[in-house]
Amino acid sequence: MKLANCQDNLLVWGDNLQVMRALQAGYSQRFALAYLDPPYNTGSRKAGAYDDSMSSSGWREFFGERLLALWPLMRPDAVVMIQIDERELGSVLMILERQERRIINHVVVKMSELSGVKMNHAASRLPKLKEHLLIVAVGPDSLLCNLRLPKTPASLVRYCKYYTQVLLNRDDDVSAWQLQPVRQAAAELWGWEPGVEGAEAALLALKIEHSKSLVYRTNNAFVAADKGRGIRPLTSPQGRQYIAWDDKQMLFLSDHLDEPLGDLWSDLSTINLNKEGGVAFRHSKKPEKLLERCLQLSTQPGDWILDPFAGSGTSAAVAIKMQRRFVTIELGDHAQTVTRKRLDGLGDFRFLRFTP
Ligand SMILES: C[S@@+](CC[C@H](N)C(=O)[O-])C[C@H]1O[C@@H](n2cnc3c(N)ncnc32)[C@H](O)[C@@H]1O
Asked: What would the pLDDT profile of 68-109 be if each residue is shown by its tens digit?
């Protein structure tokens, strides 16, 4: 069976290897992102759950041939994200090396809380909290979007301490700019009461409110080499604009209230994950916030995403909510009872039973 070129969102009930091979004709180079969350080979064979027990070599063959079927479906500038835990991480790295694929980032994601059954062993073994997300390039132009996150409250408190001066006349010519210590400005201009209970928290809030005028001096070799004095605009030979403050660079708090996303994602909550999406899918359901981030990093509205291991359908649910289009594949009977149920009512999609 071939799957004809179609513009509808698709949930396919069938084996992803056969389905991806059937997609080759109509869906070549279509997807901007593939998110793969395969069985982790936990050894579990519980009734009512998907079979998650293979030999290690069997798992490598299973995953390797599915990756080979995936690449032709991907846009040349696409990325593939593979989520896995430590059991088969080594296998995935080996397969990617053999298939000569470039890893853009190896992200560590917090996927659990310090609670539940794992705490029974906490005295003799560190509770498992993390998983791995390998972000793999399809071609040389595979890039991630620049994603910035608000600083955490704790890091904001630490960072704001450096900003001790207020620019009083930002709208004037730079050479006429005047500064005042922030505590003085806050008391005289913004109604801050020093010494009362909660004064420091109130000052922090005022700094954030006036962050466009809160400034800090930082080292910058280019500015230092200028050897000028006072506050003045400078342009580097590469055309970068600076505000120099004596031999340092002037930074504005408003430009630093957020920070670039790093490769350690510990901010995503997994509390009450079992309730998310209105369907139960024990143990391997992923948080929508995680998929939201994956889609933000690698896709634009209207782009296609492929998830060959749908499970409860998290990636498809998020794709609908973020105006992306999807093909998602699930082998288990829960394609009908869980995945389909989750997506029903969220947006339009076709449900197909794949028979080779
Ligand atoms: C780790 S779970 C995915 C969880 C999913 N990301 C979520 O958030 O709900 C892996 C899923 O892959 C499915 N699966 C395993 N082998 C498959 C195959 N050959 N074709 C399609 N789906 C498969 C399993 O039935 C299971 O639902």
From this structure: 999 999 999 999 999 999 999 999 999 999 999 999 999 999
Which residues have C-beta atoms less than 6 Å from ligand 1?
15-16, 37-39, 50, 281, 284-286, 309, 311-312, 314, 329-332
User: For ligand 1, what atom is nearest to the CA of residue 307?
Assistant: 6
End-to-end CA distance of the chain: 5
The structure's pTM equals: 0.88
Q: Whose Cα sits closest to atom 17 in ligand 1?
A: 331
**pLDDT tens across 298-311, in order?**
999 999 999 999 99
**Sign of torsion over alpha carbons 82, 117, 274, 109:** negative
Q: Separation of 39 CA from ligand 1 center, angstroms? A: 6
Classify domain 10-147+261-353 at the CATH class level: alpha beta
Question: How far is 179 from 305, CA to CA, in rounded Å?
Answer: 51
Give the Cβ contact number of residue 288 at 10 Å. 18
**Segments making up each domain of the chain, as ranges:** 10-147+261-353, 150-259
Q: How far apart are the CA of 92 and the centre of ligand 1, in A?
A: 16
Residue 316: pLDDT over 80: yes
